[in-house]
Design goal:
This protein is α+β, with helices and mostly antiparallel strands and 444 residues long. It has ten helices and 17 strands. It has a six-stranded mixed beta sheet with strand order 10-9-8-11-14-17. A four-stranded antiparallel beta sheet has the order 1-7-6-2. It has a three-stranded antiparallel beta sheet with strand order 3-4-5. It is globular and about 80 Å long.
């Protein structure tokens, strides 16, 4: 949970000091490791540099009085935050090189600059926690007033971690709590399939459509104006800092609106339905830029690849927050006891007829109405995909979206269509393959 803080001027100065101490510990420890790798500083122990958290902590406790005489002005947790961040950065770098870490390749840790680093520090040990209804207890800083009733939010849970962070000109506290395993809700019933898109954010299999607010389009004009104002001002000046704060405030407002819509939507779904089915979307692949193709007839020139149009589509895809939508559904379904079915990304939900099971060979993105030439079904494309996702999530119990058999007479399909999935020997057509995964809360 995340709560806004209301510090006094003295407390705000202490918050900045703690955040600066975390950044200082990160940078000075990085210099120490680089000095060991270059041979300027001897390596102790097993002959490896001090890039683990225990080794960095031992080095810091030994030399902190010489390199930082003012270290006792801040909590030790601020320095541990910087050391832990550096240790995690080294772990990510080595895991990325060895192939054990998925995703993009991680680079060597670089020093953190004050102008490009988000001020933050974390409490993991010590006497931190809830002071009263509207107050948090921060070691070496004191009681910090909150803008919400934090005791009511935390309840009987135990706070295990508290991260203080500066965003959009304000300080926030993110609390990680440990509580008893939630009991599944007894009022959950039915199943639903969800098809995510651009024109409509989400289409449910019961016909409900959640509109896309197009947040980035609404603020694009003002964002361009603020970006031009920022580029015209001298970097580092007072007016440049003010322009940068305005630009960040606008982006933060769009992010808050996105989170609010996703929060309300996922809460409604997890508290209503017993089975929820979604697709495993490859957002990174969907938003990838088109590769340039060189014109064979004109060396040095490139063929048009629709990059401008694809750039606009990529912005819309990233603005939707599909990954955040899935993460919210996962932990909220775990709280309510609902089952989340994640359908394989290669399942042809849009090309499959929800009435007879025919799979089209091709279906362009411009075709918004699904027309089946076998059974004559005419339906909205997204609604048809949502019904197929619901069927795939409940397979093999369901035959098809209408509850009927998937058998067809030979030769009944159109020459322009192909049947990629054959009926089950018993006449049951599975809606998903063996790679479908189910996320469910553990119950005693």
């Amino acid at each position: 949970m995340k709560v806004a803080l209301d510090p006094t001027p003295r407390q705000e100065q202490a918050l900045w000091s703690h955040a600066g101490a975390a950044r200082f510990a990160f940078n000075i420890a990085l210099l120490h490791v680089q000095s060991q790798l270059s041979g300027c500083t001897p390596v102790q122990g097993k002959g490896r540099a001090d890039w683990s958290m225990p080794a960095l902590r031992r080095w810091w406790n030994e030399w902190k009085r010489e390199i930082a005489p003012w270290w006792n002005e801040n909590s030790k947790e601020a320095y541990n935050t910087g050391l832990q961040s550096l240790s995690d950065a080294f772990s990510n770098y080595f895991d990325s090189r060895s192939g054990t870490r998925k995703g993009r390749r991680m680079g060597w840790p670089r020093p953190r600059k004050r102008s490009k680093t988000t001020p933050r520090f974390t409490y993991t040990t010590g006497s931190f926690g809830v002071a009263d209804d509207h107050g948090l207890k921060l070691p070496r800083i004191g009681r910090m007033h909150c803008m919400e009733n934090v005791r009511r939010l935390v309840g009987d849970a135990r706070i295990t971690r508290m991260t203080i962070r500066h965003e959009d000109g304000r300080w926030y506290a993110s609390l990680s709590v440990e509580c008893d395993e939630p009991q599944p809700a007894a009022n959950l019933k039915g199943s639903i399939g969800i098809d995510l898109g651009i024109r409509t954010f989400a289409t449910l299999s019961d016909g409900t459509m959640i509109a896309n607010p197009h947040r980035m389009k609404l603020i694009a004009r003002k964002q361009r104006r603020l970006s031009r104002r920022l580029s015209r001002r001298h970097k580092g000046s007072k007016r440049w800092v003010e322009a940068k704060r305005e630009n960040a405030k606008l982006a933060n407002r769009a992010a808050n609106q996105r989170r609010d819509m996703l929060d309300k939507t996922t809460t409604m779904l997890a508290a209503t339905y017993r089975d929820i089915s979604i697709e495993d979307l490859n957002v990174k692949g969907m938003s990838r830029r088109n590769k340039p193709k060189e014109d064979p007839g004109r060396p040095g020139e490139y063929l048009p690849n629709g990059q401008a149009r694809k750039s606009g589509l990529n912005k819309e895809i990233l603005d939707q927050g599909f990954g955040m939508f899935r993460r919210m559904l996962e932990y909220k379904c775990a709280h309510t006891g609902a089952r989340l079915h994640v359908i394989d990304r290669w399942y042809p939900s849009s090309k499959t007829c929800s009435n007879c099971g025919t799979v089209k060979t091709k279906l362009s993105l411009n075709t918004r109405t699904y027309v089946c030439h076998t059974c004559g079904l005419v339906m909205d494309r997204d609604l048809n995909a949502a019904i197929n996702i619901q069927v795939a999530g409940s397979a093999p119990e369901t035959l098809n979206a209408r509850g009927g058999t998937a058998r067809r007479t030979p030769g009944a399909h159109s020459p322009n269509e192909t049947r990629t999935k054959q009926p089950h020997p018993k006449g049951v057509r599975l809606g998903a393959n063996t790679r479908k995964s189910v996320l469910q809360a553990k119950t005693n």
